[in-house]
């Protein structure tokens, strides 16, 4: 493959993630081309179009659209991509995407990608060139992914300030069900529960704790709806595990077993402290 600095890179889908990637890659690739019906991110690219056919000379193609759109576009992109092009994505569930990548023509390369970063905001207006800094960027190889393609993507990931991590798609989907998709549903449930309380003073009292724990409920519904339904089995397992812990806390609270309740709270606090140490915070 060409060196990163020599590639013509095309990003399909120029919302938050796609536009942020374009900003992060400015000056690091030969040419940045964007494709999206919405031209609001056009200023972040060297060229821009609403026409999928405009990817005809791309060396690297990044699908940065909602998951179901990625699955719908992959066969079209595979048919239009030039020989030896590398196709990748930013989708949050990897097993269905890798399965679709395995069906692409043998003249193209493909590798799944998922940067573990984002915002509750959406759209090009929220784009941030530092969005990927310090994040783990998962790479999932397809059946025919070459070592050259993997090495190229690792170079690209490091160029935007992220850290590459290779995972099997199934392992990725199980992990993100617990630490990404479940937190979204918990935030949704918290917001729905609070909204049922018939007291306007609730919103006056709500402060940083409620703001932080409900933040993900502001996420784009189209994107997150695709994510949670596409990772249904793993997410149901994560919900079952979480519900068991919640039921235990409820039982401890109801039984007035304050000692056992405090032990559970302390175990959670220590687990989070261990995670923060692992992340170097």
Automatic annotation (TrEMBL):
Keywords linked to the UniProt accession: Oxidoreductase
UniProt-listed SUPFAM superfamilies: 6-phosphogluconate dehydrogenase C-terminal domain-like (SSF48179), NAD(P)-binding Rossmann-fold domains (SSF51735)
Single GO molecular function: prephenate dehydrogenase (NAD+) activity
Record domain Prephenate/arogenate dehydrogenase: where: 7-281
Entry keyword annotation includes Calcium: no
Domain of life of the source: Bacteria
InterPro entries: 6-PGluconate_DH-like_C_sf, NAD(P)-bd_dom_sf, PDH_C, PDH_N, Preph/Arog_dehydrog, Prephen_DH
PANTHER family named in the record: PREPHENATE DEHYDROGENASE, PREPHENATE DEHYDROGENASE [NADP(+)]
Family according to the record: Belongs to the prephenate/arogenate dehydrogenase family.
Protein name: Prephenate dehydrogenase/arogenate dehydrogenase family protein
Lineage, opening ranks: Bacteria, Bacillati, Chloroflexota, Candidatus Thermofontia, Candidatus Thermofonsia Clade 1
């Amino acid at each position: 493959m060409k060196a990163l600095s020599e590639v013509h890179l095309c990003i399909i889908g120029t919302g938050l993630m796609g536009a942020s990637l374009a900003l992060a890659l400015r000056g690091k690739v030969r040419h940045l081309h964007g494709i999206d019906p919405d031209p609001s991110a056009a200023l972040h690219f060297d060229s821009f179009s609403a026409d999928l056919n405009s990817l005809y000379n791309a060396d690297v193609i990044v699908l940065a659209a909602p998951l179901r759109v990625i699955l719908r576009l992959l066969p079209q992109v595979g048919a239009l991509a030039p020989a030896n092009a590398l196709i990748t994505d930013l989708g949050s569930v990897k097993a269905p995407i890798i399965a679709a990548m395995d069906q692409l023509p043998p003249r193209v390369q493909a590798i799944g990608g998922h940067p573990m970063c984002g915002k509750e905001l959406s759209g090009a207006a929220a784009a941030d060139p530092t969005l990927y800094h310090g994040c783990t960027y998962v790479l999932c190889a397809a059946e025919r992914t070459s070592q050259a393609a993997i090495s190229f993507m690792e170079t690209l990931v490091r160029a935007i300030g992220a850290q590459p991590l290779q995972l099997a798609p199934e392992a990725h989907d199980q992990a993100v069900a617990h630490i990404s998709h479940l937190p979204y549903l918990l935030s949704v449930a918290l917001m729905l529960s609070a909204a049922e309380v018939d007291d306007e003073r609730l919103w006056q009292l709500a402060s940083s704790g409620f703001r932080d724990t409900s933040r993900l409920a502001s996420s784009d519904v189209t994107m997150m709806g695709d994510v949670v339904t596409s990772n249904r089995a793993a997410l149901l397992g994560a919900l079952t595990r979480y519900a068991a812990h919640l039921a235990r806390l409820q039982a401890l609270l109801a039984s007035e077993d304050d000692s056992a309740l405090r032990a559970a709270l302390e175990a959670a606090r220590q687990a989070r402290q261990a995670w923060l140490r692992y992340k170097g915070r």
